[in-house]
Prior knowledge:
- The model has no long low-confidence stretch (mean pLDDT 96).
- This protein has an 18-stranded mixed β-sheet that branches.
- The protein is an alpha+beta fold.
- The longest helix has 13 residues.
- It folds into two domains: 129 residues, Diaminopimelate Epimerase, Chain A, domain 1 (Roll), CATH 3.10.310; 128 residues, Roll (Diaminopimelate Epimerase, Chain A, domain 1), CATH 3.10.310.10.
- Belongs to the PhzF family.
- InterPro entries: Phenazine_PhzF-like (IPR003719).
- Keywords: Isomerase.
- This is PhzF family phenazine biosynthesis protein.
Amino acid sequence: xxxxxxxxxxxxxxxxxxxxxxxxxxxxxxxxxxxxxxxxxxxxxxxxxxxxxxxxxxxxxxxxxxxxxxxxxxxxxxxxxxxxxxxxxxxxxxxxxxxxxxxxxxxxxxxxxxxxxxxxxxxxxxxxxxxxxxxxxxxxxxxxxxxxxxxxxxxxxxxxxxxxxxxxxxxxxxxxxxxxxxxxxxxxxxxxxxxxxxxxxxxxxxxxxxxxxxxxxxxxxxxxxxxxxxxxxxxxxxxxxxxxxxxxxxxxxxxxxxxxxxxxxxxxx
Length: 269
């Protein structure tokens, strides 16, 4: 069977966030899916198979880190939609049935893909004991998304602080259900993006995820409320970076970005 590695939220190879993508006829047992994801050893590997015509979705979609299955993943959804469209397997809008509900993906004329995700709720929260020490930075505010994606959105003082983070991943592991999203407003309002972020997910086996699409379902409402605009651009990442364009539409958030296939081959398993 064919397996592909796709860099998501970028139009350049070796940047953005890489994801494994396998298109299947049906889902094998969970243990096999987990072993493949561990072998691929990227933050997520996506597995998809077609569904019968006439239903609420066109493809079933699941995502696995090297250690566990996750409820929502943006960059691997973008990677899967890219593979479907670039190979001619699908045309027009695609609907995915996933753990978090039905997700849409539409190929745009400019080569990007727009995904339709549920917006995350944000609840102000106290700064957890040990968070500032684990991050190595002073925290401005914390918001919890525990009833949705399970992340803490943590605002820091400024963009240079976010970019310079070198956290204690072992200490962060116990501080959230899924991950810690550190964020700040862009230092230069004319730099082509509105806010920056970095995502740390040691609780699910990923020390740092370069560009986390699902986190932007929380970052979009957070920064849209601050800036008073529904359309924003986020830059995420440390050593690897990518661009996520967000559009807030009430209980849905549209995530837009490029993707590029960098590796394609045969899986013998």
